[in-house]
Amino acid sequence: MTLKQVLKLGSVIGGIALLGSAAASAESFRVKLPNSAPEAAYDGRIILILTPDGEKEPRYQVSANFDAAQVFGVTVDGLKPGQYADIGTDVLGFPAKDLKEVPAGEYFVQAILHKYDTFNLSNGKTVKLPAARGAGQNWRLEPGNLVSEPRKVSFDPNKRGRINVSLDQVNPEIDEPENTEFIRHIKIRSEMLSEFWGTDVFLRAHVLVPKDFDEHPEAKFPLAIFHGHFPADFGGFRTTPPDPDAECVYSARFDLDCYNHVEQQEAYDFYKQWISEDMPRMLIAEIDHSNPYYDDSYAVNSENIGPYGDAITYELIPAIEKELRGIGEGWSRFLYGGSTGGWEALGVQVKYPDEYNGAFAACPDPIDFRQFMTVNLYEDENAYYREGPFTKIDRPAHRNYLGHISRTMEGENRWELVLGDKTRSGAQWDVWEAVFSPNGEDGYPKRIWDKETGVIDKEVAEYWRQNFDLRYIMERDWKEIGPKLQGKIHIYTGDMDNYYLNNAVYLTEDFLEKANPPYQGEVDYGDRAEHCWNGDHQNPNAVSRLRYNTFYVPKILKRIDAAAPKGADLTSWKYK
């Protein structure tokens, strides 16, 4: 059976699951929408989770790792209270592809209905997508999603039967953060994005203001945009010492016990630096630009996500500067971030060269699509495998600093397909597709490669190259934009980045080193450093990742000294 047949069988229309004949001869699951469900009908994705681990809820054990919880997914359209979706064999899963591959045993089971809304786009097309509702497109927590109570069940794929699951809980609303002495919140309705999506769309900023901000109404401040994933509030800043009684939380990523204590100490140390006399007075903003495809927009204009680049640069940033007394000129604005935020920092600087005075891009997502992690989108035929005359091998998607592989390209993409079809998983490969691809005839993004086979669509790849391959765009347009970018490009990555992001940096550096006029920036590498090394040679990632806001400040001050125009305000914001 092909994957396309699996997807067809794994859909639900009017509450009746279209399952293969194999479902009748093996145990299956029935996920029911109770009569008490608050809405008249639901569109969305039902995600069923199985795990032998009862220490925490199954929904918090879902990931793309090969040893993560088992998940299955089906799309529902117009599911009404009292109706149900059946999940049996031939419904696509991850890590196991099929329910009949799940070993017999005792499992904790939980289901979630990730709710979709209908959007009538400005291009005349209609799509169903999960609206951004305050949780940063985290389907586990988005308000209004329906969830079942976890319970223990016995499952055997070799016997007939059905296990019932009821979506009897509703995720609560999430309160918006409140202003404090140091953190101010700005929310605007974007005219550009509201027109694109056919409904009201808001942008938010969480802005760290300097010491004695309200006592110095004469001062106007430089502005740094700290790009990255969805922020519920301004992170990494606390005005009180660490809580000595806080229960220790282990970090598997860094293999550190009590890592939450490290985070609290760093956040408090940042506060003490922020109010010190040596710290320049400035504004630092984290932006909530979550949208129906992902927890942020990549801060550029996109056929599928909308004109977020223009909306942020020409609507939100002027609103921040107006309300919080920003200087409001290109020489006084800066960009930095890591991973997604690293790509955004460089991408925004390249797309808007006059509006910003420097980008500090750490471990950026692929900035040269000849090394889209481990794939050359323009020359390779397949994203999942490297093929020889007699066999093929899986392309890796994640490694540690020793090169040990924990994920493959096929596995990560299948995991996303389980979470959502039509580029609706809310995960990494799908958001790149949503941002970079042209809009398809059905209103959803065109696939960069076939999700079943991994075969790359070269027409879509060429669209990606012309519009979002940052190295290609810089090289193509350097005669025009090069003089505007001199001294503004700074890129940092570990040479053992877990996602192979250093590969694209190597190729970009090759261009920058020979660019004419010279780029006059910086590219630097951390020896054996994993994701997300930011240029700090003195501290491990576990610490340096918590110091972006102070680590790049000296570099920002150098850029101001080098590039501020004659007569610029260099004094009002330097009060003690």
Automatic annotation (TrEMBL):
<dbReference type="InterPro" id="IPR029058">
    <property type="entry name" value="AB_hydrolase_fold"/>
</dbReference>
<dbReference type="InterPro" id="IPR050583">
    <property type="entry name" value="Mycobacterial_A85_antigen"/>
</dbReference>
<keyword id="KW-0732">Signal</keyword>
<protein>
    <recommendedName>
        <fullName>Esterase</fullName>
    </recommendedName>
</protein>
<feature type="signal peptide">
    <location>
        <begin position="1"/>
        <end position="26"/>
    </location>
</feature>
